[in-house]
Write a structure and sequence with these properties.
The chain contains 3 helices and 5 strands, in the order αβαββββα. The protein is an alpha+beta fold and 93 residues long. α1 packs across α2.
Length: 93
């Protein structure tokens, strides 16, 4: 997986401990697409819910509004989703 600098930075920030409360939703959306995933709106009454599919792993997320940053719980859900899909930051040596 060859990620650009911005995607690598977003991935690193999602996996940081303690969990960050300042990750932009647009950066997470772009990261999922950048690693080969796709986004779907789960239905006409879904509102802010978005479904991500990556490596046959499905995740459902709530798009933040009116703000644009993910809360800690959403970041933890994103971390869980990415880890289950086999996407983790590489250790730098």
């Amino acid at each position: 997986m060859a990620l650009g600098r911005k995607h690598r930075r977003t991935l690193q920030r999602i996996f940081e401990e303690p969990t960050r409360p300042d990750i932009a939703w647009a950066d997470f959306e772009a990261l999922v697409v950048g690693v080969g995933g796709e986004w779907r709106k789960p239905g006409c009454t879904a509102g802010s819910r978005r479904r991500a599919i990556l490596n046959d792993v499905k995740g459902q997320f709530h798009r933040p509004h009116p703000g644009s940053t993910m809360e800690k719980g959403s970041v933890e859900a994103a971390r869980f989703f990415l880890r289950n899909a086999g996407v983790t930051p590489k250790e730098e040596k």
